[in-house]
Amino acid sequence: MKKYGNIALRRKTMAIDAQLLEILACPKCKTDIKLTADEKGLKCVQCHRVYPIKDDIPVMLLDEATIEPERQTKD
Ligand SMILES: [Zn+2]
User: Fold this and answer.
1) What is the pLDDT of residue 71?
2) Which of 24, 18, 15, 14 has the alpha carbon at shortest distance from 45?
3) CA of 12 to the centre of ligand 1 (A)
4) Rounded to an integer, what distance in angstroms lies between the CA atom of residue 8 and that of residue 63?
5) How many angstroms does the Cα of residue 67 sit away from the middle of ligand 1?
6) Which one of 30, 35, 39, 41 has the fewest beta carbons within 10 angstroms of its own beta carbon?
7) Which helix (DSSP H) or strand (DSSP E) does residue 74 occupy?
8) pLDDT tens sequence for the chain (75 residues)
9) In sequence order, what are the residues at sequence separation of 6 or more whose Cβ sits closer than 8 angstroms to the Cβ of residue 45?
10) What is the CATH T-level fold of the domain 15-67, as seen in this structure?
11) Which helix (H) or strand (E) segment is 39 a member of?
């Protein structure tokens, strides 16, 4: 995927690319996800699953996600 290439190049200056966020979705709900306040995860607005970001790469796997309704997100 082309946009993943951009992320790799920019990883030193920016954790997660805004364009990448737009194309990513929760694999369960197919719903928007938001960056968590600490920028260490991506949270589904619907099921409250938080997907970890490892080495600046979002891990969009249900097995890796934790359900955290209280986790704060950025806007
Ligand atoms: Zn979800």
Assistant:
1) 97
2) 24
3) 28
4) 24
5) 9
6) 30
7) none
8) 555 555 555 445 556 788 888 899 999 999 999 999 999 999 999 999 999 999 889 999 999 999 999 999 997
9) 31, 32, 33, 34, 73
10) N-terminal domain of TfIIb (2.20.25)
11) none
Q: Provide the terminal-to-terminal Cα distance of the chain, rounded to the nearest Å.
A: 25
Q: What is the distance between the alpha carbons of residues 9 and 7, in angstroms, rounded to a whole number?
A: 5
Q: Give CA–CA dist 16/47, Å, rounded.
A: 21
* Residue in this structure with the two tokens 């951009």, named with its chain if needed: 6
Alpha-carbon distance 26 to 58, whole Å?
Answer: 11
Instruction: Quote the ligand 1 centre to 11 CA distance (angstroms).
Output: 25
Domain residue spans of the chain:
15-67
